[in-house]
Amino acid sequence: MLSCSSTTVKNLLLKRRLCFLLKLVCFVSSVLIFCEFLIYYVVIFQCRWPEVKGGAHAGEKETSASVLKAIILADTHLLGEIKGHWLDKLRREWQMERSFQTALWFLQPDIVFILGDVFDEGKWSSPQAWADDVRRFRKMFKYPVSTELVVVVGNHDIGFHYEMTTYKLKRFEKVFNFTSGKLITRKGINFVLVNSVAMEGDGCAVCRTAEAKLVALSHKLNCSQQKPNFSNKRCSDVEKLPASEPILLQHYPLYRKSDAECSGEDSAPPEEKNIPFKENYDVLSQEASQKLIWWFHPRLVLSGHTHSACEVLHAGKIPEISVPSFSWRNRNNPSFIMGSITPTDFSLQKCFLPYESRVFTIYCAAGALLVILTLAHFQLLTPPFYFAQRLISKHKAV
Questions:
Q1: Residue 303 lies inside a defined structural domain of this protein
Q2: Is the pLDDT score of 356 beyond 80?
Q3: Percentage of the chain exceeding pLDDT 90
Q4: What CA–CA distance (Å, rounded) separates 362 from 27?
Q5: Sign of the CA dihedral with 152 first, then 37, 327, and 96 last
Q6: 184: β partners
Q7: What pLDDT is attached to residue 180?
Q8: Residue 61: pLDDT above 50?
Q9: H helix intervals, 225-318
Q10: How far apart are CA 194 and CA 214, in angstroms?
Q11: Alpha carbons 270 and 266: distance in angstroms, whole number
Q12: Helix (H, G, I), strand (E, B) or coil at 46
């Protein structure tokens, strides 16, 4: 009789422990699924495509058909084999992959632009390391046939000007079909891709080739827009392009003294804002910047490189948007730009991704709750007096 009751008690205790263990597994799994998967849907679900100001006068169907929906991001910095720790790689790449794939699924853009520094160690990579980096990039940033991906070169992809070689540039061009001075026209909108690393102005072979292509493209665009300075004779044999003022896409920002005038929660930290920028390192030189403005008269310039957000006006009328880094390794609050663009107008909206500090706070809170639940289950949360009394009574019973 006693053995039967003892067995029953043991079975009950075992069932309670298994039930408690199952609850803990469910709790931990729920926290992981939310922080590593669902949170991206929760955050990106709040982002909306901006409306183009002039679109209200057109019919709804005509407006939606003529507006190009573009996502712009920068500085993904996929870690390489030299500096990249495997755990850091795993974490950062998972975050960027989930953000990118969630954004594609929910927002369904027509085109995505990545403004350079795709890789962190492209300037050093051996052929084998480069192939591995490219494979990982294609897995993370895969996209459907309805979306186009356009990638601009950055200094970490091919090196700064003194590290840049024809081999590194050709390697990048082969993978991403990129050339400096390349024109992409979609829905009557002209985008000019610039290799800003090659805008050194010292006459190097790569620089001469890049500038020559930009000058030729500038001539075509100016003829197509029928600029007053361009005679009909000079433009008679030129291929006509859409008469839309171009948008420049490049890695380096145009020249500015510093980030002192930049504002917003994702601008540079206060201690960095007043640090002077170095030409051809932090920003393009004044000469190169003036050349690009004079050649193309762009209506918008989009750049990356600084890892922080900034909005500036050049020549009092040309806006430039510096896009923050897309990697949590560089920022606590990464983001990307959503652009609704037509041949004559554009509207931009920023979409913030989950703050890493908030995700960390959720994990800490969940960990603390887990400890409390465990202590409560084993009845270790009673006041010290009763806990001591229970220990004494157990000792006496023995």
A1: yes
A2: yes
A3: 70
A4: 13
A5: negative
A6: 191
A7: 85
A8: no
A9: 270-273, 286-296
A10: 8
A11: 11
A12: coil
Residue type, 6: S
With H, G, I as helix, E, B as strand and everything else as coil, classify residue 282: coil
Residue 55 confidence (pLDDT): 46
pLDDT digits (tens, 9 = 90+) for 135-155: 999 999 999 999 999 999 999
Residue 386's contacts (CB-CB under 8 Å, 6 or more residues apart) are none
Buried b (16+ CB within 10 A) or exposed e, 178-214: bebbbbbeebebbbbbbbbbbbbbeeeebbebbbebb
Domain-embedded: residue 384: no
CA distance 97 to 112: 14
Model confidence pLDDT, tens digit, residues 304-336? 999 999 999 998 899 999 999 999 999 999 999
Q: Please name the residue that has the structure tokens 């590593």.
A: 36
pLDDT band per the 50, 70, 90 thresholds, residue 62: very low
Rg of the chain taking only CA atoms, in angstroms: 28
- Number of compact structural domains in the chain: 1
d(CA 248, CA 320): 9
Reported residue count of the chain is 398
Q: Which two tokens stand for residue 283?
A: 């920003």
Residue-range definition of the domain harbouring residue 324: 65-227+235-356
Instruction: Decide if 88 contacts 131 (C-beta within 8 A).
Output: no
CATH number at residue 179: 3.60.21.10
Neighbours of 117 (CB within 10 A): 26
Give me the mean pLDDT over the 148-170 stretch.
Answer: 94
Work out the pLDDT band at 58, boundaries 50, 70, 90.
Answer: very low
Convert 118-154 into a string of H (helix), E (strand) and C (coil). CECCCCCCCHHHHHHHHHHHHHHCCCCCCCEEEEECC
Within a domain: 92:
yes
Query: By the 8 A CB rule, do 199 and 193 touch?
Result: no
Q: Pick the residue with more confidence: 261 or 376?
A: 261
